[in-house]
Amino acid sequence: MKHLILLINCLLFIACSLPCSAIETEPDINTILMRSTFKIQGDNNTLGTVFILGQPQTKNRGAKFILVTAAHVLNEISGDFATIFLRKNNRNNYTKYPYRIKIRDGKKNYYKTNNNVDVAVMYVALPKEIDILLASTEILADDAAIEKFEIYPGREVKILGYPFGVESNKWGFPILRSGDISSYPLTPIAVKLRSIRFKLRSNYHLPIWLMT
User: Fold this and answer.
1) Model pTM above 0.90
2) What is the pLDDT of residue 69?
3) Which of 100, 121, 145, 151 has the most CB atoms lying inside 10 A of its own CB?
4) For 165, which DSSP code?
5) How many domains does the chain have?
């Protein structure tokens, strides 16, 4: 859990959204993240939290689903598959929707990690019928955002997750907690941006930007 809190502090979500479907009113950032955060479980009962982000695409191609989690979560899951507990929404009647994803093929991982941070990312295909509001990858914070929004030690931050696997309700929504930033310095977040390319099963290459 400590690693997950560090992950969220490193990938600081600050504003804006990329809805997956039309919505009547624009929700606040906490609601967006509530509806794009899910629990993941391995066949060996390893538990963790995953965030689904959307990467804007040009020419009306919509958004690519990007799964972000702590690297140790996926590394500790045995076997090739994991289950994400997605949700369906029928007129505010939520139901859990367990969904299997392939995270590796034998010794070949489908996710990408970075040796300097406990973060893993991978592209995922998700069913159309799930309930999700996508936050864009463009809201990942950089040094300029830290300065602009006056993020400093002692500042209260909000953290979404599943501490010890606990959910906030029977529909599998995460628990929102708060805490104070207790370390210094906060910058530089990134020495540089690295374009990390990895091969999907379709042999189609796509970039993911990680701040290290």
Assistant:
1) no
2) 95
3) 121
4) G
5) 1
